[in-house]
């Protein structure tokens, strides 16, 4: 079922280690899993996702996929990094960590 999974991002692994000072890693997390019919309240579906789930289950429109498991709450991450002029910058970046998941 749709749920949050562990994803630790290492900035060195993605080629950003030379300009990001801190943190060196962070917990980004990700969402994965099925959104099966019928969608339960635990999957936190929107009304649209509920209707899409019904249409998909009935099968009258084969082009309509099941709803997707996606982040529904994201949190920010503060980074300390070097800018293009090698100045040290402290900046908060929104929507960096998946805090919870839902079927949408």
Automatic annotation (TrEMBL):
One Pfam family matching this protein: TGF_beta
Entry keyword set: Cleavage on pair of basic residues, Cytokine, Disulfide bond, Glycoprotein, Growth factor, Secreted, Signal
Compartments, record wording: Secreted
Assigned GO CC terms: extracellular space
Gene3D superfamilies according to UniProt: Cystine-knot cytokines
Domain TGF-beta family profile: 1-104
Major place of residence: secreted
Superkingdom of origin: Eukaryota
SUPFAM superfamilies: Cystine-knot cytokines (SSF57501)
Recorded GO MF terms: cytokine activity; growth factor activity
Xref: SMART domains: TGFB
PROSITE patterns: TGF_BETA_1, TGF_BETA_2
Coiled-coil positions: none
Matches recorded under PANTHER family: BONE MORPHOGENETIC PROTEIN 3-LIKE, TGF-BETA FAMILY
Family named by the database record: Belongs to the TGF-beta family.
Protein name according to UniProt: Decapentaplegic-like protein
Native source species: Daphnia pulex
């Amino acid at each position: 079922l749709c749920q949050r999974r562990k994803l630790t991002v290492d900035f060195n692994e993605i080629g950003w280690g030379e300009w990001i000072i801190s943190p060196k890693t962070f917990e980004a997390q990700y969402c994965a899993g099925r959104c099966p019919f019928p969608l339960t309240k635990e999957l936190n579906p929107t009304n649209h996702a509920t209707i899409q789930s019904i249409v998909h289950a009935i099968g009258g429109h084969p082009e309509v996929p099941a709803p997707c498991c996606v982040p529904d709450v994201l949190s920010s991450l503060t980074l300390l990094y070097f800018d293009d002029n090698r100045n040290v910058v402290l900046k908060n970046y929104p929507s960096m960590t998946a805090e919870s998941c839902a079927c949408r």
